[in-house]
Amino acid sequence: MAKWVYLFTEGDATMRNLLGGKGANLAEMTNIGLPVPQGFTITTEACTQYYEDGREINDEIQGQINEYIEKMEEITGKKFGDKENPLLVSVRSGARASMPGMMDTILNLGLNETVVETIAAKSGNPRWAWDCYRRFIQMYSDVVMEVGKKYFEELIDEMKAKKGVSQDVDLTAEDLKELASQFKAEYKEKIGEDFPDDPKKQLMGAIKAVFRSWDNPRANVYRRDNDIPYSWGTAVNVQSMAFGNMGDDCGTGVAFTRDPATGEKKLMGEFLTNAQGEDVVAGVRTPMPIAQMEEKFPEAFEQFKQVCQTLEDHYRDMQDMEFTVENKKLYMLQTRNGKRTAQAALKIACDLVDEGMRTEEEAVAMIDPRNLDTLLHPQFDAAALKAATPMGKALGASPGAACGKIVFTAEDAKAWAERGEKVVLVRLETSPEDIEGMKSAQGILTVRGGMTSHAAVVARGMGTCCVSGCGDIVMDEANKKFTLAGKEFHEGDSISLDGSTGNIYDGIIPTVDATIAGEFGRIMAWADKYRTMGVRTNADTPSDAKKARELGAEGIGLCRTEHMFFEGNRIDAFREMICSDTVEEREAALDKILPYQQGDFEQLFEAMEGNPVTIRFLDPPLHEFVPQTEEDIKKLADAQGKSVETIKAIIESLKEFNPMMGHRGCRLTVTYPEIAVMQTKAVIRAALAVQAKHADWTIVPEIMIPLVGEEKELKYVKKIVVKTADEEIKAAGSDMKYEVGTMIEIPRAALLADEIAKEAEFFCFGTNDLTQMTFGFSRDDAGKFLDAYYDAKIFENDPFAKLDQNGVGKLMDMAVKLGKGQRPELHCGICGEHGGDPSSVEFCHRIGLDYVSCSPFRVPIARLAAAQAAISMKH
Ligand code: ADP
Ligand code: MG
Ligand code: MG
């Protein structure tokens, strides 16, 4: 019989896959002797089984849960529903990877009218007893029965108004008792039956709710964004309660062993007296800084500081902890490696190396490459920032520079961003429902909440700028406006946020590009030391190439030449070329383009300083270049001495049913060899010119033929390229080398890679097209149905963003093997969007690619991901 349930004393930190992160760490903390309220963990496998059994908990699992309730009763000396000494528990979700705020916790389970009277009498603290009960009804109704928090919050607000108090803690036992009965009435009205009294029934309802929450829309979105597979499932932790709400010598808090925003080594956190659970993070009351805990509870604080030290030494990483003080006694409720900003991650990793706690390789492995993104984005221009006067200041909860138009709801943030607006989301406080909107915003500003509020935690996780807890704002969410510093702001007004200082500015403050320095530079240097795969960039313009070089690119893996045709009046010449009737006419038009193209290539070779540059020949269907407006058509007709009708007829003749699979790529060269001749001349002449200027560089231009699917096709095109190139080189009296290779982006090319490799000197996987052609759907239309595919659990990710390793990856793996088998010196790279996606980069390392190529801002991400792949393969 499988074991579905583990006591905290039966597990440890290595059992994360089975017990979830929270469960494994509760067990580990128990093992190292920290004060943890005891309990048990129902495994992630039980969750998977629950879904297999059609969302039911089968008898075997049920039986083990009952058995473990008894064990727990023995350990704690308390009993479920008991009149003398009742057991109260929390039911907590906990997946392998932490998913903050994604799934809900239920506290004080085991209460009913009888039990609440018992604990009220026994403790002599009826206020506490009724506070627990009303909280339990509220959480259970919300989480298990999905009644909706808002009704309960309205009832609390009504009660506070009636009593003329502003805070929950000012409500009396009688008020809370009254609230509890109102809550139960609300429950009965919404659900149609009485609130459950039997603790075991309550527990089973709660466990099922945790399992069910694994599949809620918020969790699904979070998983997709964070590469967490659906198949993992969540564990459930059932833990006896520690009470932070018994009075003023109780409290609850959260803390980090280092600053999660900056990485600075100092205890950071927040604390609330006489409070429970989410009170600290929900922004119900504004919590006090952890340092003040020292005054309130000197002994518990001293002990807590030691626990922090123990945990950091034990996990060798910054810890994020949750704890409760019950009658001055400390209980640890959670620890995990804390989420942190990219900046903090770099500092902490470097500090841990300097403190002798971690090796360089471990430090490199600790950084989530996806987080680097935020550091590569613009920062405020220092001079402009200095000149600006903040109109308000709150907590710098997640660093970064954000400017944009104010919106007041998550839905608006999403909608506005979709139409290309930069927005800043301003809210009283955020909740998990707001995730999508938060993702769409440049920055988030909240009126309530501290450093550990939902907004702060989630924003840090996403790398989005966040300023939280700006109590000076007078908010009117209903009418979409607020007042700050005497000025009224409306939807659409501009605002800037500095997530490092917490400053808020009226209007837009200009930003400047980021640089790699300090700890960022140190980590990147280590990454370069340990990685074996090259990192190039996709760059079409000299400025992109320069940027990429600054960010560490070791060459250009893809230059899309067609992008150069749109600049200035080149497009006129290109259109003339397209609308030519004869080869002579076409060549005349191409002759006009040649010098431009050569000039562009020279700049690229210059920018790359002798590193390899791969230039792809014309790829898109010609139809993409023809004039659209009457005016442009007339202009072209006049230039060519043709009638408007003739031009229109040519344009019409270029239309294709399926241009993606039409007359494009190397097919253009087969029909119009003179295009390839011109492009070859431009590449070779540019390379010769730059080589002549820099004797210390060895320039070997790489000419890449797109969309090849057959060896003879490549052979035909290559012959044209080679003839032209050799003539140019000879005429220049040079012995410059060059290479001709191909994109592998048609499945047939991957299947016949050994044949293709007879002609190709390198392969570059164009995984955008390869994905499109392997799946048989267009990347431009996939958006129409991908959401339905996610909902139906057919896809977990967008295969255009994250490489489909099973299918497309298999083709790549095969092509590398076949290609290198035919031609051992063949070099292989990838230049699709996937070249900048960490998990795809890891795959590329595994199948033995020589380099990945990605957009300039992804270069550092790829460098780090490549290093992590090399390090993890080594160990
Ligand atoms: P999350 O994963 O969202 O942080 P948790 O399971 O950690 O959810 O629960 C949230 C909070 O509930 C904890 O930080 C803690 O304050 C409180 N809590 C959970 N279990 C207990 C317990 N056994 N005793 C006291 N408080 C608890
Ligand atoms: Mg927690
Ligand atoms: Mg392509």
Automatic annotation (TrEMBL):
Chain ranges of the PEP-utilising enzyme C-terminal domain: 519-869
Residues that, per the record, bind Mg(2+): E745, D769
Cofactors (names): Mg(2+)
InterPro entries referenced in this protein's UniProt entry, alphabetically: ATP_grasp_subdomain_1, PEP-util_enz_mobile_dom, PEP_util_AS, PEP_util_C, Phosphohistidine_dom_sf, PPDK_AMP/ATP-bd, Pyruvate_phosphate_dikinase, Pyrv/PenolPyrv_kinase-like_dom
Xref: SUPFAM superfamilies: Glutathione synthetase ATP-binding domain-like, Phosphoenolpyruvate/pyruvate domain, Phosphohistidine domain
Pfam families named in the record: PEP-utilizers, PEP-utilizers_C, PPDK_N
EC class of the enzyme, as a word: transferase
Binding site for substrate: R560, R616, E745, G766, T767, N768, D769
Keyword Nucleotide-binding (UniProt): yes
Family membership noted in the UniProt record: Belongs to the PEP-utilizing enzyme family.
Protein name: Pyruvate, phosphate dikinase
Organism annotation: Anaerobutyricum soehngenii
